[in-house]
Each structure stands twice: as C-alpha cells, then as structure tokens.
Fold each of these.
Amino acid sequence: MYKTHNFSAGPCILPNNVLQQASKSIINFDNNLSLIEISHRSQPFDEVMNNAKQLVKDLLSVPLGYSILFLQGGASLQFSMVPYNLMKINGTAVYLNTGTWATKAIKEAKKFGNVVVAADSCESNYSSIPKNYTFPKEYNYFHCTSNNTIYGTQIKNFPSLNGIMVCDMSSDIFSRKINIKDFDLIYAGAQKNMGPAGTTLVIIKDEILGKSGRDIPSMLDYNTHIEKNSMFNTPPVFSIYVSMLTLQWLKNLGGISYIENENIKKADLLYNEIDKNSIFEGTAQKEDRSNMNVCFKLKDKSKEQDFNNMCNNAKISGIKGHRSVGGYRASIYNAMPIESIEVLIDVMQKLEKK
Amino acid sequence: MYKTHNFSAGPCILPNNVLQQASKSIINFDNNLSLIEISHRSQPFDEVMNNAKQLVKDLLSVPLGYSILFLQGGASLQFSMVPYNLMKINGTAVYLNTGTWATKAIKEAKKFGNVVVAADSCESNYSSIPKNYTFPKEYNYFHCTSNNTIYGTQIKNFPSLNGIMVCDMSSDIFSRKINIKDFDLIYAGAQKNMGPAGTTLVIIKDEILGKSGRDIPSMLDYNTHIEKNSMFNTPPVFSIYVSMLTLQWLKNLGGISYIENENIKKADLLYNEIDKNSIFEGTAQKEDRSNMNVCFKLKDKSKEQDFNNMCNNAKISGIKGHRSVGGYRASIYNAMPIESIEVLIDVMQKLEKK
C-alpha cells in the first residue's frame, strides 16, 4: 500500500489524492491549460486563492478582524517581517528561545531593536519547553515557536499575556485545536501540514498593524498584501493550489478535531514503543513531547548501522535525526498513515529481539 | 495540435514536454516519492539545484566571479533587495523609468536613499525607450528594466557605463543573447521564459556585495544565499525543478542563439501583419518593439467585440491588453509555437476581409 514510508521532517509526506490531483492539474487545470501556465489574475486562480483562504478560515475558525495571507519566503522571511511591522523604533520584543528556529528569529529581530529573551532551554539542548517565565512591563510583542522539529518539543499550554502574541506554527499548524483569538499573528511555512514548499501562511489581526513607525519595504509590509488579497505581485501559484487541495482533504476527513485525535493516537503509539523498548530512549522531556516530530535514539550507538539497514529494507525513509541532536526523528505529520508508524515499530521490536 | 493558444503575459505558456515531466514527478520523482514530499537537503534535490545553476551558467555563459541564485518573492522583492545590498547610506542610485515595473522599483529604492531618474518615457505612456540620457558623476548603481511587458517595449542597446549595472530581465531573460559581463546584477521572476511562478533567478557579481554599510536582514542579504547555495531556508522546490526542466529543454533545442532566431522570426511575422493589416496598429515605437510582448490595437474600437469573439472561437487565450494601455497584447515567449501566431494572424486577416 505505502511503497515508501516517508518520515521526512519537511518538505514531507502529502496525501496521495492531493498528489494525484496536483499531477493532473499540471497537464490540464482549466480549459486545457496547465495550472502553471494560466494568469494569476484569471478567474480560475482567483477561485483557488479564495478557496484556500476560506478553508483556513473554516478549519481554524478564524474570527472577524483577522486577515489570511499566502506569502513567499518561508518562516525565515517572517523572522524579519514581524519586527519590521511590529517592533517600534527603540522598542522591545520578547522572545522565547526553544531551539534553532527561535534562535534565528531572535537574531533577525535584534537587527530592529531590543530583544528580551524571556527564557531559553539551550542548556538542556532544547529538550524541554521553558515555563513560568516573566514578561517585562512594556514590550511590543511576544514571539514563540509552537513546535520544534529538530528537538521534538511542542508548547502544550501557551502563556497568557496582555500584549501582542506572535507564533511561528510552521510545523504544527492544522495538527491540533488552537484558539485563534489567543494569537495576534501566526505564521507557518507550508511544507509540513499544509502543502509543498514555496508559500507561507500568515494569519494576522488587522488592528496590530501600522504602528511600528517604520518605512517598510512594500513586499515586507503585511498591509500591502492584505490590500491586494495576497496578489500584490505574482503569487506562488502551484504551492497555493496544492495547499488548497491539502486543506480540502483535511476538511473532508473531519477537520482539526478529527486530525488532532489521529495525531494523538499516532504519537502515543510510537512514544509507547520508545518507552517500553529496552534499546531505545526518547530525547525530549516527556511532558513537552511533540506529536509531530518524535525524536529518539538507540541507547547503544553500535546498533545504529543495524537499525539503519533494517529501516532501509522496510522502506522507511527520512528518519535520521538532525545533526544537532543525533539519533532518529520520525516526523508524523497529518498525512502520515498509522500503517507507516506500525512498520517502524515492527522494525524497532525486531531489533530489540535480536 | 495546440488545443488552446496561450498568449498569456505571465505566468505563461511552458513547453509541453516540461509539463508532462513535471506532472510525472509529482507522483514519482525519486524512489517512489513525489518531488514535493522529499527533503530539500536530499541528494536528488541537491542535484536539481546544481543542474539548474549549471544550465543558467551554460546557457548565458556566466563567467567566473558571478553567483547564481534561486530565491523567492519575485522581482518585487528584488526592488528592495537591490538597494538594501547596493545603496550606501546617503547614497544615490540612478533608475531608468520605462514603465510600471520600473516605477515600482523606483518607489522601493526611494525608501533607502536618493534616486535620480535618468530618463522617463511616461509622457508617451511608455511607448518608447529613452536614449541618450546622462549619468550623475557619482552613483551607487544604475537600474533598468530590459523588457516592459505592459507596453511592449524592449531595450535593444543597453547603455554603457562605468558604474554598477543592475537589470530586471524578468520578461526577456533566456530569449536573446546578452553579455553577462556588461551587467553586475541581473534578476528575473521565473514565470515568463524560465518556469512557473514561485522562484526568482539572480545572477550577481560577487565583488559588488558587502559595501552598502547596512545591517541587512539575512533573507534580504545576497551573501546569505550565496553562502548557502540558495538553501539558507527551504527553497521553492517545485518552481526550481520546473525551471531546471525548462532550461534543459532550451539547451536541447540549441540554446540562446537558436531561440533568439526563433523569437525574431515569430515577432517579425506578427509585427509584419500588424503593419500591413489596415485595421490594426502597433502601440510601441517601432525601433523599441519587444520580441516578447506584441502590443497592438484596432483602429476602430467598435470592431473589438467581433475580434474578441473570433479569437475565442479560434481558442486564442490571454490576448487582452493591460488595462493601462488597452487594446491587445500577444505574449510570445520562448515556448510559444509559431503555429499559434499563425492562428492569430489568420484571425486578424479574416477580420480585415470582413
């Protein structure tokens, strides 16, 4: 059924029927024209853009007063767009440092003003999520990363604050229920749970904009894209289309509450095996374990070659851990079937019995 | 043979065998995995990136000392990246204003410093390319737009200058011979002659960088992307892959010298008809006519509905002129077959005879 079990951290597995439909649309999307050779100003693409937005709205129950954008440049460009739009001149922003991506976001924000790092879990190599940190009296916004792909940690309870809440949800958006009203700006690169690389989803509360006092380059100004319905310039047509298909697939399945249950089931299955299998151990603190990226290692490193070979033979792909953590990482995003996790568990059990 | 004759200005027609190959790769690119679900750090995608770069190098004879990048954000983001990287604090840049896109580039540059507009053809609604303009004594760079899609004009002879030469070649790169050594920075959105929307080609002379004295956001710093081989962050995998296929198609056909001849043949055929057909007229000054975008109109506007209907019946698509010029625009990029132009000419002749 699944020829290759794709545990890649991103770009990553997409639903099979989405791939089939995308493949067909490359040949004939509308009136015998390919999806990628029609004008982005044409009615068929306008419908794609509006459908994609509506699906985001429906799936996440986005309330009035928020705009939904499909941009380019990934989370990495958001690292600069956020302070450009939200950090006042001589202002202060508060960041939570939970890993490599948060560190990169902090680096970019420092080019615009003062950054206060509320808490940092680098001493434990980001194996946990800091809690009970405090906020300065005045700050322009707070920024956090909801899920840390490299370390396999995930914020289970977001801090409550009075200020502006910005969250990089690149690797767990659409995987679990969130209350949009708790956030003022959410951004996410598409290439985990939303679609292929090449577009970035931004959900933003309109009223927080226009207050930084900066002369923002048009392409970095959220208001530019809000005014033009994400079509100030030619949008990444293919990536937005495939994102639309993937969100439609999710809605058809039963939406966020359905997939959240599935994701919990899948993650529990794999974490249970890691905990009971005598030769493996998890690398993230239990209470902060990510339901998207399951990081683990062999207690005895000499068994790695054996495990790698067995994974290869079982057609398990993309399971190598990030070089900064080592070991293994099974990324089990929305589109990952439980069957692939069972194949992985089977290999883990066979190695234990050897 | 060609079910629809796609004269769209961009995104636009792509070679049929490129579409076929792209469609297949969405299903199975490598080891039964889709192109859009593999890691961008995997060897198969690394090869795509390196092949795409090598094809640019080969097709345009890019000399040593230049870097080739595949970025995101289109020409519109380049409008800001260029001054961020090249305009010194309190520096001056010189721009040639040949239309809407040049005007947008100027608007963004003004956010960074002084802009001198060397010449501006707005009084003739950009129907010609200014010539014989002068340069100030000192400036950080000169910026021009090689082809103006909206107005159907094209720079045939680039000015020679001692300073840094920056050119937006979005709509005619890979369509004609250029001497890369005459330029220091060339950029081009993919969605005309290179591939689908979603990536931007940048060819840059390394030695011009690092001199603006600005603290550039990492994603807007060309050096960031040079150091990481365009993989500082997740690249737009699909757009780069299809660009690679399109450049390979061009190389297989015979490269730039072959396609330049074809493009001249195709443009001549259509312009000859416009000039000899008594009911049509061209809108751009003859010596500045673009070989990519052929703009024309009916002398008698009341015939438009008739012409539109005849075009529809002949399956001619995307021929409506830009709203700022009116009339018609036939975009005849590299992948446009001469047969489609013949169909258009046939319709024009039939209307004349009516």
Amino acid sequence: MSSDKRVCLAYSGGLDTSTILKWLILEGYTVVCFLADVGQKEDWAEVEKKALALGAERMIIDNLQQEFVDELIFPAIQCNAIYENRYLLGTSLARPVIARAQVRAAHKYNCKILSHGCTGKGNDQVRFELAWKACDPSLQVIAPWRMPSFFKRFAGRQDLLKFAAENNIPVSSTPKAPWSQDDNLAHCSYESGILEKPDLPAPKDVWTRTVDPLDAPDVPTKFSITFKEGVPVKLEVEGGETVTGSLELFKALNEIAGANGVGRVDIVESRFIGLKSRGCYDSPALTVLRLAHIDIEGMTVDSKVKSIMAWVGNEWSQCLYNGMYFSPERELLENSITYSQKHVAGKVDMMVYKGAAHVLARSAPESNLYSEEQASMDTLEGFSPEDTSGFIAIQAIRLEKYGAAKIKQGEPLTRSS
Amino acid sequence: MSSDKRVCLAYSGGLDTSTILKWLILEGYTVVCFLADVGQKEDWAEVEKKALALGAERMIIDNLQQEFVDELIFPAIQCNAIYENRYLLGTSLARPVIARAQVRAAHKYNCKILSHGCTGKGNDQVRFELAWKACDPSLQVIAPWRMPSFFKRFAGRQDLLKFAAENNIPVSSTPKAPWSQDDNLAHCSYESGILEKPDLPAPKDVWTRTVDPLDAPDVPTKFSITFKEGVPVKLEVEGGETVTGSLELFKALNEIAGANGVGRVDIVESRFIGLKSRGCYDSPALTVLRLAHIDIEGMTVDSKVKSIMAWVGNEWSQCLYNGMYFSPERELLENSITYSQKHVAGKVDMMVYKGAAHVLARSAPESNLYSEEQASMDTLEGFSPEDTSGFIAIQAIRLEKYGAAKIKQGEPLTRSS
Amino acid sequence: MSSDKRVCLAYSGGLDTSTILKWLILEGYTVVCFLADVGQKEDWAEVEKKALALGAERMIIDNLQQEFVDELIFPAIQCNAIYENRYLLGTSLARPVIARAQVRAAHKYNCKILSHGCTGKGNDQVRFELAWKACDPSLQVIAPWRMPSFFKRFAGRQDLLKFAAENNIPVSSTPKAPWSQDDNLAHCSYESGILEKPDLPAPKDVWTRTVDPLDAPDVPTKFSITFKEGVPVKLEVEGGETVTGSLELFKALNEIAGANGVGRVDIVESRFIGLKSRGCYDSPALTVLRLAHIDIEGMTVDSKVKSIMAWVGNEWSQCLYNGMYFSPERELLENSITYSQKHVAGKVDMMVYKGAAHVLARSAPESNLYSEEQASMDTLEGFSPEDTSGFIAIQAIRLEKYGAAKIKQGEPLTRSS
Amino acid sequence: MSSDKRVCLAYSGGLDTSTILKWLILEGYTVVCFLADVGQKEDWAEVEKKALALGAERMIIDNLQQEFVDELIFPAIQCNAIYENRYLLGTSLARPVIARAQVRAAHKYNCKILSHGCTGKGNDQVRFELAWKACDPSLQVIAPWRMPSFFKRFAGRQDLLKFAAENNIPVSSTPKAPWSQDDNLAHCSYESGILEKPDLPAPKDVWTRTVDPLDAPDVPTKFSITFKEGVPVKLEVEGGETVTGSLELFKALNEIAGANGVGRVDIVESRFIGLKSRGCYDSPALTVLRLAHIDIEGMTVDSKVKSIMAWVGNEWSQCLYNGMYFSPERELLENSITYSQKHVAGKVDMMVYKGAAHVLARSAPESNLYSEEQASMDTLEGFSPEDTSGFIAIQAIRLEKYGAAKIKQGEPLTRSS
C-alpha cells in the first residue's frame, strides 16, 4: 500500500488510542502501532495482543530506557533543570526520545503519517509534533483530538465506550481513575479530572512512585553519589549495594528515594499554549540527583560560571518544556552545559527520610576551588586582609556617588521606608 | 571631644568585639557601642553592662525587627530570593538594616568613625562597609581585623584571652563552640572551625533553630498562609492560632517550621571575595514562605512575567549577597519586584513534617489566570483545538529548517548520539 | 443592524483594502472604515471619498501622532530599543496606537468585528490581532488574506484588478512600485517584491525619507538635544531654530536627519512567525535620538544599572516586535524603563553629515557620576591608588585558581592557541 | 642574579616607562624590557636603543599581530562585541595577548616580577595584572604608579622631566600632546588631558586612524567581505585588490575604512573601577566588520540562537573590558561563540563613504534560513495562512486574560495614558 495511507500511531493500549487505532483503520489507513518503553509499568504482551486484535499491521515496542537516561535525564541533571522553580520536567524529558524513535519506526515501516492521542489543550501534542517535524519535515500528522470530525463524534467518555462496544475494543474492567497519569523513568505525573481543582489536596492514592512521607520508614537511608563530568557514576548505599551503570543507578535511586517519600511536587504551572494547569509529579531519583549535583557544583564550579550556567539551565529547561528539544538553541545550550561539566567530579553524602532529601557532606579531591586553609577564619596564611580594604574602597566608589545623589535628592539612604 | 576621635562600634559583647572596644579606647578613641536587635537571642542588659564596664561612652541597643521583616525579608520572599540555588540569604538580609541603623546612631552621637569586628576574609565586612559608605560617604571605617597592628598582635585566641585577662574583660565561662554562628529572625548560620571540613557532616548540636528531622513530631502540622501583594498577611494553623502582623506571623512560622525540622541547608558557597566556604543555615520560616510564595505565584502570575522575575530575583539576590543593597541597581530591581506583586494574592495550604515542607493546595479567587474550565481536559468550552494545529505549524517553521539543514550536514536528528 | 454584522476595517485607500471593503459589503457586512494618522503622507480627503463611494458607512480618520510619539516612540528611545541589533522598530511602534484606536472606534460605532488587510505571512497581522484581543477579547476578527474563500479568489494582482474593474473601485493610474511600503512618523519601511532578493541592493528610488548620502549637503548640520527623564525636550539647531514640543521636535529631527541621509537600514530579519525576510527602513529621527540617548546615559546612568537596562531594553524590543505591547511583561518592563530614566538629563551636541550621525560632546550638570577631577589621570585628589592593588588582588583569587588548574590539566594559559 | 630581583617591564620608550626603568635599576633590580608589537606605529630600533642605554639587560620586541587578530579580534567579531552599546573594545582586546606574551618573556628570562607603567585609576592595570596572575600566580607585580614612594616623588610631569635630566633619559623634543593615546591594530584610543572635558568636542587633530569625514573622498568605496565560520576570509574591493589572510585583510580594511572616515566613537564610559571617563576611539576595520558580521548573521543564524548569542556576546564583552579574559567564564562563553558560528558563511556587499559604513546586499548560498519563496508576500507556495490564525489565537490566550483583568481593575487597555 502507498506510504500515503500508512500511519505510525503512538499506541498505549488505552481506550483513547484504541479508539483512534480503530477509527484510522475505518478511515482506510494501515496502522503501525508504536509504543516506547521509557521505564513505565506496562503489560507489553497485552498491549501488542490488543493492537493486533484491533487490526494494526504490527506493534512495535521500543526499549529506549538507556538513551532516555543518558541523553535526556543526565543533561537535565547537569544543568539543574527545573521549570517555574518547581517542575523537574519528567514528561518533557521523555518526549524527545519517544518522538525520535517513532520517526525511525515510521521510516522503517514506510509510513508517511504519524499520529498520537494527545488532547488539543496540552503540552504533549506540541512536544511530539515539533519533534517529528524537526526530525523529518516531510512527515504528515494526524491529531484526531484536534479534528472536528473526531472530537465532535467522541465528545465524552460515553461515546468512546459506545464505539468500543460496537467495534470489539476490549475495555479494562478496573474503573478509570478520576485523573490521568504519565509514567516513565524520570517521574510519574498526575493531572486533569479531580486534580483540576487546585484548592483541593491531591488524594492520598494519587501517588504511585513515592510512599506517603507519613508512612515512610522511621529510619533514614544514607548513601553517597559519586559524580564525574557532572553525571552520577556510582551510588553507594550505607550498609547496602553499590551501583554503577547509569540506568541501574537511576532506577536504584528511584527505589530508595521513592520508598522514603522523596520527590512529590504539586503545582499550578504555565503550559506552553498559555493556559495554567495543575500538575502533581512524583520524581524520586531526579529530586535527589538535582540536589546532589547542585551540591557538588558548589565545590567544583567557579562562581561566575555558576551564574552563567544558571541562566543556561533555565533556557534549556524552557526549551524542553516547550517541546523545543530538536532546536538549534537547545543544541547550542547543551554544548555549553557539557563544556561546563568537565571538572564537576566528587562525592556527595546524603540522607533521605520521610519526604525530604538532605546533603550531609561532600568532597571533591580533584578540584582546587575549595581550600580549607584559604577559607579558614582561623588563619591568614596566603591572604592579605589589607587587600580587602582596597577591594571595598573601589567597589564603594559608585555606591558613594549613589548615596551622595540620594542626599541631594532629599531621599537619604539612612531613612527607613 | 572632636568627632574625629569618636567611634561607633558594632558591639556584640563577645570576646572579639570586647577586645576591639578596649583596644580602641587604649588607642585614644571614645567609643559608642551599637547593637542591633534583629531577633537574635541575647542578654541585652548583660551586653550593656559589659560595654559600659569596659569604658564605652554608651551602649545603644536598637530594635530593628519590624523594619527587618518589612523592608528586607518580605521583598526577599516576593522575589523568591536565593543564592547559588540553595542559600536563603539570612545574614545578607540583616546587614542592610543593621548598617543603616548604625549610621543613624553615628550621626546622633556625633561619631565620624564606624568600626566592626568582622574578619578580613568574609562577606560581612564588605556588606557593612559598602552600606556605610553608601549611607554616608563622609564616615571613616576602622576594621581592626584588616589592620596589621591589630591582627598581628591578636594572632590567635590565646592572645585575645591574655589581653582580656590583662584588661579585665570578662570571658564567658562556657567554652566557645568550635564554630561561629550568626543569629537573626531570618536564620541562624554556622560556619568556620570544624565546619571548614565540608566532607564531614555538621555535628548534630550545631543547629539551634530547627530540631533534627529524626526527632521531629510524628504528626504533621498543617496551616495555610494568605498572601496579598506578594507578602504573607495571615497564618492560620490547623487546630490552632491565626496570626496576622508581619513580624508576629514570621516569628510564629519560625517556631512551627523549626519544631518540624524544616529549613536546614548545608552548602559550599562562593563568597564575594572569591573564596569558597562551607556554611550551614537554619531558616525555618523563610523556607516555608519561599515555597508558599512560589506556589501562589503559579496561580497568579503570567508565565512570561514569571520568567522575567526569575531573572530579576536572581539579580536582587546577588546584590544582597554581595553587600550591594544600597545601590542603584537594587533600587531599580526592587521597583520591579514590588510592581510584579500587585496581584499576587491568595491562600496556600501547607504541611510541615520531619524536615520537609509540602504544598497541599492553593486558591486565588481574585485572579483569572487559572480557570478550571479552560484547563480541563474534559471540555472544549471556549477552546478551538484546531488553533493549536496552526500554533504548532508556525512554531515548526524554523525547526523544520533546522532539521533539514542537519540532514544536509549528515547529522540527521533521528540518530541517537 | 446588529453589531454582529458590523465590521471596523483598517482601511488605507489602496487596492487591497478597497477590495476587502467591497468584498465585506458584498458578504453582507456593514463597514466602518478606520484610518490612523500616525504621520504618514496621505490625501486624507481622497481616502474618505473613496471609502464612502465604495459603500462604507463612514470613514474615521484618527490623528494619533501625539500619543504615538509620547507613548511609543519616546519609551523606545528611553530603552534604546532595537531588534536584532539593527532594526529600530518603526512599524512595530505604530501598531499598538493604531490597534488601540481602532478598538475604540469599534466600540464607538458598535462593531463587534475588526478587519485588516495584512497578509498571512507577516508580522503586522499578529501585532494587530494580539493588540485587539488584549484590548477587547470579545471582538471578532476577519482576516481575509488568511481565509481560503478570499485568498484563493484573489490569488494574484490580476484578480484584484479584475474585481476592481467589476466593482467600480478606482485604481491609481500611477503604476504600483515593485515593493510595498509602510510610512509613519518613526520610519518608512520597504519590503517584498524586488526587495525579496537580499543579494541585490535596494534601488536608489526606494528610500523616501532620507536623501542618498551621496546627494546630501556638503556642509554638516550641527545641533544639540536636551534630555529630561530620558526623553528629548529641546532641539537647538546651530544657526537655526529651537524646538520643544515632543511631536514638533521629533518631526524637525526627521527633517534634519533625513536631509543628511541619516537613518537607512537594510537587513534580513527574523519574523515572529519563523520566516526570515528582508526589510529596508528609513528612520532618521529615531537613529539620531537613539544615539543621543545612549550618549547621555553614559554620563548619567550607573554602570550596573546600564547593564540591567540593556537586558530590559532588549526584552521590551522583542515584545514590541512580536506584537506583545499589550502584555503584562511589557507593562512590567516599561515600569522599569521609566524608573531608570528619572535622572537621565543633559545635553548632547551632535552633527549629521552625508549618512552618518556623530556625537561631538555632552554635558549633564545635574549628575554626579562623571567627575572630571576623579576621572583625571593627572591628579590623585580623593583617590588612593593603593586601593586598586587590593581590588585587583581580591579579583584575582578565583582567576589564580583557574590558572593553577589549567597548568595541572596540561593546558597552561600562557600558550597561544 | 636571583630571579627575585629580576623584573620584566612593559616598556614603551616614553617618559613614564623610561623613568620606571631607571628607577627600578636604581632600586637594585635587573630589568628585562618587553614591548609587544600589536600593530602600533613605532620606531622599534629607537626604543631598543633607549632601553639598553638606560641600563636594561635586554629589550624584547615581540610581534603578536597574527595571534592578536586570530585569537582576540576575530572572536570579538564573531560575537559582535561591544561595551555599553558603543565601545568596540580595541584596547581591551590587545591586553590579553600582550600580557600573556610578557609572562612568557618573564619565564624565558627568569624574572619573578612583572612591572608596568599604567596609572592607578585606569582599566589597563587591572587587565594586565589579572591576566598575569591567571597565567602565573607565582609572579609578583610592581606597579609604581600605585606605590606612594613612587607616585609621591613623581607627582607631576615636571618631576619626571627633572628626573630625566638627572639620569640622562632622552626626552622627545616634540611637545607631548595634551592627551594620551594607545595604538594597536584594532584601534587607536585617545583620553585624559583636555579630553577630560566631555562637554568639549575632541580636537580635530586627535584622530590618527580615520580622516575627518568632511575631508573624506567624494566617491564611496565599495567592497565585499566573505565570511566562513563567522570570520572574514576574503575582502574584495570594487575595482581593486582581493585580500585573504586574516591579518592582511584586517589591515587592508583599516586602511579603506580609515580613509573614508569610518570608525570614530566618542563616549563617556564606565571604567571597571567605578569611575566614568571619556574616551575617543578610532576603530575603522572593527566597525566595518562588526556591521558586516551582524548582517551575515541575519541570513544564517536562527532567531532564537541570535537572541541567546546577543546575551553571550554581551557577557564576553564585559569579561574583556574588565580584564577577565583569562577566566573560566570567558572560556565557557567563547566555546559557545565558536559553536554558534559553524554555519555563519556568506558574502556581504558594503560601501564606506564620508564617515559611514553601509550594507548594500548579502548572500549566503549554503544556508536554508532565508528563502525567497517562503518570504515572498506574492506567493503562498508551501504556506497555509490559516495556520497563522491558530498561532495568533493561542498566543492571545494569556493576553486576553491580561486585558480582561485590566478591565476588571478599572484600567482598560483601550485608554491612552
């Protein structure tokens, strides 16, 4: 069949994408289903069985965990990525690896069209489609939830269930949770449904990756993380295991931090498309690693470089959130991030306990930036305190002019406001 | 006596400043002692008695708590102030109010000289002196710890003790802690001494304002904070008190958060003078209020304004850390901060528990930025999903060019690195 | 008639908007025509006559010159506005005043719909519509050049001419220039048509507001500009007039600078919608005033404030270019701009000559920032050169660490690359 | 002799450094004189003869022109470097290459001390010494103009002349110009003396590298500059030569632009040490190349990348101005600059005429960013104008909320201020 009628659909096995799969087939398309394994819990065989039963030509399941950690999560840690001061970008980080792999799948199976089940109000549609268009501008997109012929037909869940019944689409017998969630190695997110009331706390059973801090163990877990070139290379748990591979280390930290209730965030954020929405996020390992990385940078990165990189990290985070991973600016920023991390190496001792992560100590033997002797208030070895007088005097020149002008203007600085 | 020999000395009653007081008198100066009450624990009568006994002309004790909270701490909350991603600036915030009040004291008591007991390696000397010079460029400064005639004479603690013995300076019978601390409403800091080994955890008994998270109550404390124009105006504790005055509210939060182990930070930071040093900080109320304020901004501040204010807040924080409070740039930045907060109003529900603060929910009835209906994934009321297609298509124009160029350059974006 | 069928159309009298006017009427709309006088050359009576002849209910001509200068052009001067390092934003500055006045006209004449003749590829459609939607979200927009029913019918100029002939739309007998232009007080722009080949120089007869530098007078024109609060308040031409009103002053400078060939810019710029395009701009007065303003800021603004304001000015410029004048971020930025200009006052002596503007001298008697005595290399009055040694020593601390680390890494800084 | 008494002195042959040379010898030092050839006009043999006659052990003259252009000037062009919106950094750019070479000379001739004749109020002392300390923290510095024993003895020019007479220091018979100047390939600067009155125009005979625009040729000179990776690689003069080597090209452009009066700047700037000073600068080639580079970036650099690089270029410029070339932040920034320039290639056609440089046209055949077809207002090939409607609608979401809030607050955006 001509590639013009071949669609590569992001298929999760859920009611929405099953409906889309069937609908596409009924519209005359041949559908190749694609599902990325980015660390979520899933009955993979069941998904494949369902896709094929519904008429998919094939079901591709692509394990992207390793590249997800190495190419997306670790750069995020290197630049202390965060969005609007709170969100660790878990979903945003997964989208580029998924989108890229889906384009590769489309190429392999001769599809000229890509499709997804994202809603028309969210960030994910933007992230997938911008990534697809950058990766291969010649591909077409079918976004059913933005097509009136689709979204008017399926205006509510009842319409979907009716269609499912008519088309032999199996529907899970467990009732749908009154919110949606997105799970991957980096985090699990919870939004929409009852969470759309930001003045109500998230229900206790929302969280899947962290235990409730109130239910966490009564004894803290201590461990140390060793960094090299700004990424974690070793995890040593006190009285426990030592883990070294990037994926294994990240997973182990997810377990440890999650078991201690670390990594919950509940915010109202600004979506790229201009709406505010409430999101709840569970990011155990990311939370710990971001803190550890900031700490080791304190020992190993020059103050002015830190200040520049804070800006760079913020720009990188905005790129990711807005779906601009495959962009010239992200490439440029990441080049700086990598460069800035060459000498970020050392070990951070930490503790997680009932919802909080704490840095206890750190060492960076290869860096000369921290010097106990220089820092010491008890010795003047190699330091001339008189120099500071000159430093202050020169810094004061423009401040004295400011103060003098204020006096002249009748607003002396000595006055409290 | 001529004002040229009159010194206004920042006097704490400790061994260092008592030595300086006596030394100044021996050098022929008349000394007016000054101590700001910025919320630290102190036996005020004892300090006064000691100063007068040592020969000070008078001891001024100036309660600055209210202006400290209103003019410094609250703007810090409004701009989510933080230094190097961790430090909440507790000491930096107190310095401007203290320095300004000391200049006023110097004016009142006809002193042309100011003096302090700060070391020559720290930030505080810079903060005090830049503030003094801005407030009144005509004042002179005596900084004994930067004068060879002083620091060579008092090269170690033994020299200070010997001088104390010879000059009837009373020395506390409790042995000095092997670190130094600075206490005010905003925080208590701990540094130097045994803390100069950043690879060793801070001793358990360092912390004075927060209980150890492991010893914190087994039941969380819940409360809500109401903001108006970006500052907290009401604290309502679940099953407890309601507090409204700015100073009272801040103190109450210090108690609540501290009792639950919230607010500890242990970092290696970059001092203004180019050295790295390790600091431990206890900032219970600041920690909670910063988090609450970020949260309520999520509901009430436009995304682009947030992004601009993140930069402004960062610049403001650097001004404060570097002692540039009395500077034209801080004035300019703060003008923006105040302006940005006009409509930051609402209520945040929180919980503190064993070392962590959590946001549970929030509401901002006066803001139209969050709209449940608009945000909802379950309705399209007032939203045309087709618009997003156009939005994506236009955003993609330059990304498609980027992807096409990459293909031409032999580095297609579909390739994993 | 119901306001739902009443359109307020931005009408210029040209072939495009005349076609739209007629087409709207044929589609059943009642049309109120609107034309803003922002300083362009126009036969106003002729435009009105034409609009009414074609069936417009009325023709509103609104003189916005004064608010254009005071509310848009002068803030641009205050923040040294520029886009992509070259473009002085002439068109971008006019759009907000025009859009706002058109909304007022729509309100006055009971129109619920606004319309314009902008193309679908340009910036202006975005600027108008974003401004309209911010000013009154309840208004609808008809953008014919983005409606397939319109743009497919009028696919080329021949279709427009045919429609004109059929509908008695008078067409100018002078042949259309092979490019388009937009004229206002701030500038005249030239783009599209033969200018779309950026490798060919703009034809000599493109420029309407500046003489060719090669044809400019052989004698320079000298003048001085007096600033107060960052805006020009007096223009004194050597051997000539003195002008004080903001609008009059701006117009006089347009004449003087234009007559000397000053203000041409020819660039390839990035449109908001992701395309690059070539634009030629004639902005005589803006060019001179931007230079003069930068110069007087050199005398009157603190270095750190300058550095912050450079960033603010850049953000403001991007807002304007992208049609985000009516946005919370522009309001925030402009608040800072105004605040930063309180003490920007003084006089700049300049010369324009054959295509270039030159600053010759300046004075700012009310500012204490420049001090001949302090700056002087010939005296040390009030300056201790030893202070600089300390200043350098402290600044060097982190650089010495950097140099030492480089030596250890085998990349000594002494090596040329 | 022990290296502890061996000084490597930056020696120019002038009265100041000749006095310092003699003074150092009288103080018991052995002096190796060092002079960098960075393109200034100099009678090199005469300088050497004078140094040796005064007792220098040797006179090193080091031709650094090639590395100056390649390592400093070209990166400045790549990032469109400018300080405070006007100054092209000519002196700042030369300092790092000179300082580095002087350290190499000190190493070669076993000197542990470096010395210079910079004044205590200027930027150059900071630039030299920070560079020296970064390149080799073990070196000592003698800065006579900051040593009371020196500057009190030589309080005025008469003292220097008297010392010269007593010590057989030859003094030039041509009277000293009433200002100082610093000449190198990048520019010639003029400051101090009579130029310290910023309200008086610089005398006509100040400028050495540009003719007065009024005296420039009546016929423009046209040429094109070809860029590759952001640096000029070919200069083709209309009806004249073609130049390709970096140094030769830069020199040729200096001649052409200087002969047409292009490159003069007269400003009041903020020195690093907090003072404002007036500087006049002649930078013919830099002026032309900065403009050409900005222009070719318009064709070849993505808009978002441009915006990031504007910030990077500004930071780089501040590093250079403040003497922070040898710093980790400059290294980081320059890494980004280089990276951003990979695809900056093309040709810019220009004209210089009586004080102004003009871009006439440009082409960049290897870039796909500018597309005549896409940009064209006359065709819709490959463009769906409807997309822009969606783009605008989504961008408007938050602006509509802003406008609605303004109406509610009683400040509708339709109101002129």
